[in-house]
């Protein structure tokens, strides 16, 4: 107990936490002090265990302290941790690139994805894709293409370029004066409506936008199948098919941001597979290292790569990060790919997906759950005061915070996105864990239904 409090005090003396109004720490927003993690559980300094229902910000795939990844990283650390990747190479970077290209979504009628560029976090990966798309057109002498098309309610990270193409008001609004304006188009989000209709309407909007402004656009950027930070809003693969076709028709790139949905979250290794599409840029991070080390990969075609080949340095893609292609992170990623294969994760997750569905379907909504939705290993419960879908509803009373506190008290790290409760657990959860998750979520919903200060 004392150790727990001491750590909390020391932390609040010196740390500034991400995505946090620090005035709320430690009350009303609790601050966990985590001593260790094992499997799907985190353990704090008082010995209390928490089921990590959010995979520690969607990064963890196989549980905490996965021994095979720990070993792979330790082995690599004794050989080479980091080397400058400009002008030098190393085994894990090459092997990982080879394997990612083997696994990347493929459309037999297109030129395959053939080149991997590394960055060191998701937002940086998005910056890379945006800059490459823009620069490719420049290198061809096309000066007009200076804009991006992005989706309402999308999210692509927090650096200024990535934030610019995102549309989560809580993160974007205050920085708006600093941000390049993309062309926002309707989201295919199927919340409260028929997914086919939502997707058709969104495609009409994309078509209109490209018709009007197509020759000023370098790329369309989207999160395939699930807009995660935007409240785990889900859409039909039909939209991705249609968007791919429109991008081709208007000669613009398609950037698939699979930073959150990649590596099995949606039921396939990559979400694009479900629409049988291949993007021009595939952005990966989060689960890439099984949730152990920061790394991102941007994967593109030989033609994009060739567009930068020249004697002029300015035509080259001079983007870099000090830790680009860090060897420890690449080793962790290689081991992650090995585990995905050895443990047949995509196949064994099918049963887990069914357990999650069963647990979600048996929950009593207490009249405030207006929608429960699932795509693979992601389940979301959208709450509203009267249980009717209302996409404008914003949760000013912080019902989500109440649910968060309730779940922590009951040993589950459930971190709602506003009024959306969701499950996105590591792939090692068993039936017992899912029952616990369901029981605690049920309790949180009941608590909100009875005591939540819902605005009228
Ligand atoms: C998390 C996320 C990012 C940003 O990744 P960071 O590593 O947090 O910078 C980008 N896109 C999507 C879809 C994400 O979920």
Automatic annotation (TrEMBL):
<dbReference type="InterPro" id="IPR015424">
    <property type="entry name" value="PyrdxlP-dep_Trfase"/>
</dbReference>
<feature type="site" description="Participates in the substrate recognition with KAPA and in a stacking interaction with the adenine ring of SAM">
    <location>
        <position position="19"/>
    </location>
</feature>
<feature type="binding site">
    <location>
        <position position="155"/>
    </location>
    <ligand>
        <name>substrate</name>
    </ligand>
</feature>
<dbReference type="GO" id="GO:0004015">
    <property type="term" value="F:adenosylmethionine-8-amino-7-oxononanoate transaminase activity"/>
</dbReference>
<dbReference type="InterPro" id="IPR049704">
    <property type="entry name" value="Aminotrans_3_PPA_site"/>
</dbReference>
<keyword id="KW-0949">S-adenosyl-L-methionine</keyword>
<dbReference type="InterPro" id="IPR005815">
    <property type="entry name" value="BioA"/>
</dbReference>
<feature type="binding site">
    <location>
        <begin position="122"/>
        <end position="123"/>
    </location>
    <ligand>
        <name>pyridoxal 5'-phosphate</name>
    </ligand>
</feature>
<feature type="binding site">
    <location>
        <position position="415"/>
    </location>
    <ligand>
        <name>substrate</name>
    </ligand>
</feature>
<dbReference type="InterPro" id="IPR015421">
    <property type="entry name" value="PyrdxlP-dep_Trfase_major"/>
</dbReference>
<dbReference type="Pfam" id="PF00202">
    <property type="entry name" value="Aminotran_3"/>
</dbReference>
<comment type="subunit">
    <text>Homodimer.</text>
</comment>
<feature type="binding site">
    <location>
        <position position="320"/>
    </location>
    <ligand>
        <name>substrate</name>
    </ligand>
</feature>
<feature type="modified residue" description="N6-(pyridoxal phosphate)lysine">
    <location>
        <position position="286"/>
    </location>
</feature>
<feature type="binding site">
    <location>
        <begin position="321"/>
        <end position="322"/>
    </location>
    <ligand>
        <name>pyridoxal 5'-phosphate</name>
    </ligand>
</feature>
<keyword id="KW-0032">Aminotransferase</keyword>
<keyword id="KW-0663">Pyridoxal phosphate</keyword>
<comment type="similarity">
    <text>Belongs to the class-III pyridoxal-phosphate-dependent aminotransferase family. BioA subfamily.</text>
</comment>
<keyword id="KW-0093">Biotin biosynthesis</keyword>
<comment type="function">
    <text>Catalyzes the transfer of the alpha-amino group from S-adenosyl-L-methionine (SAM) to 7-keto-8-aminopelargonic acid (KAPA) to form 7,8-diaminopelargonic acid (DAPA). It is the only aminotransferase known to utilize SAM as an amino donor.</text>
</comment>
<dbReference type="InterPro" id="IPR005814">
    <property type="entry name" value="Aminotrans_3"/>
</dbReference>
<keyword id="KW-0963">Cytoplasm</keyword>
<keyword id="KW-0808">Transferase</keyword>
<feature type="binding site">
    <location>
        <position position="286"/>
    </location>
    <ligand>
        <name>substrate</name>
    </ligand>
</feature>
<feature type="binding site">
    <location>
        <position position="57"/>
    </location>
    <ligand>
        <name>substrate</name>
    </ligand>
</feature>
<dbReference type="InterPro" id="IPR015422">
    <property type="entry name" value="PyrdxlP-dep_Trfase_small"/>
</dbReference>
<comment type="pathway">
    <text>Cofactor biosynthesis; biotin biosynthesis; 7,8-diaminononanoate from 8-amino-7-oxononanoate (SAM route): step 1/1.</text>
</comment>
<feature type="binding site">
    <location>
        <position position="257"/>
    </location>
    <ligand>
        <name>pyridoxal 5'-phosphate</name>
    </ligand>
</feature>
<protein>
    <recommendedName>
        <fullName>Adenosylmethionine-8-amino-7-oxononanoate aminotransferase</fullName>
        <ecNumber>2.6.1.62</ecNumber>
    </recommendedName>
</protein>
């Amino acid at each position: 107990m004392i150790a727990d409090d001491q750590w909390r005090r020391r932390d609040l003396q010196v740390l500034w936490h991400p995505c946090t109004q620090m005035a709320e720490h430690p009350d009303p927003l609790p601050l966990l002090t985590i001593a260790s993690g094992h499997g799907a559980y985190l353990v704090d300094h008082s010995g209390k265990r928490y089921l990590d229902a959010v995979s520690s910000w969607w990064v963890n795939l196989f549980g905490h302290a996965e021994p095979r990844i720990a070993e792979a990283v330790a082995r690599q650390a004794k050989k080479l941790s980091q080397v400058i990747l400009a002008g030098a190479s190393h085994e894990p970077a090459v092997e990982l690139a080879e394997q990612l290209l083997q696994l990347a979504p493929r459309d037999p009628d297109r030129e395959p994805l053939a080149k991997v560029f590394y960055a060191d976090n998701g937002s940086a990966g998005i910056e890379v894709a945006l800059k490459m798309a823009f620069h490719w057109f420049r290198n061809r002498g096309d000066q007009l293409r200076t804009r991006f098309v992005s989706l309402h309610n999308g999210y692509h990270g927090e650096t200024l370029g990535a934030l610019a193409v995102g549309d989560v008001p809580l993160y974007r609004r205050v920085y708006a004066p600093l941000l390049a304006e993309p062309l926002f188009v309707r989201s295919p989000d199927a919340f409260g409506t028929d997914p086919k209709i939502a997707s058709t309407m969104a495609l009409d909007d994309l078509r209109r936008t490209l018709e009007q402004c197509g020759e000023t656009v370098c790329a369309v950027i989207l999160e395939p199948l699930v807009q995660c930070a935007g409240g785990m809003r889900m859409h039909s693969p039909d939209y991705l098919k249609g968007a791919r076709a429109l991008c081709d028709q208007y000669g613009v790139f398609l950037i698939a941001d699979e930073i959150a949905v990649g590596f099995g979250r949606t039921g396939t290794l990559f979400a694009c597979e479900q629409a049988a599409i291949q993007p021009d840029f595939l952005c990966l991070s989060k689960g890439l290292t099984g949730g152990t080390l920061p790394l991102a990969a941007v994967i593109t075609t030989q033609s994009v790569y060739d567009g930068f080949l020249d004697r002029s340095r300015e035509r080259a893609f001079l983007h870099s990060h000090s830790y680009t292609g860090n060897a420890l992170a690449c080793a962790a990623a290689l081991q992650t790919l090995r585990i995905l294969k050895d443990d047949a994760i995509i196949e064994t997750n099918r049963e887990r997906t069914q357990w999650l569905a069963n647990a979600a379907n048996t929950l009593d909504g207490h009249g405030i759950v207006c929608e429960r939705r699932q795509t693979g290993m992601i389940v979301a419960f959208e709450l509203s005061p009267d249980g009717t879908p209302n996409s404008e509803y914003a949760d000013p009373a912080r019902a989500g915070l109440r649910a968060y506190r309730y779940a922590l008290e009951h040993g589950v790290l459930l971190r709602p996105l506003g009024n959306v409760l969701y499950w996105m657990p590591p792939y090692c959860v068993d039936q017992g864990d899912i029952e616990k998750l369901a029981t605690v979520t049920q309790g949180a919903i009941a608590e909100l239904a009875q005591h939540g200060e819902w605005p009228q």
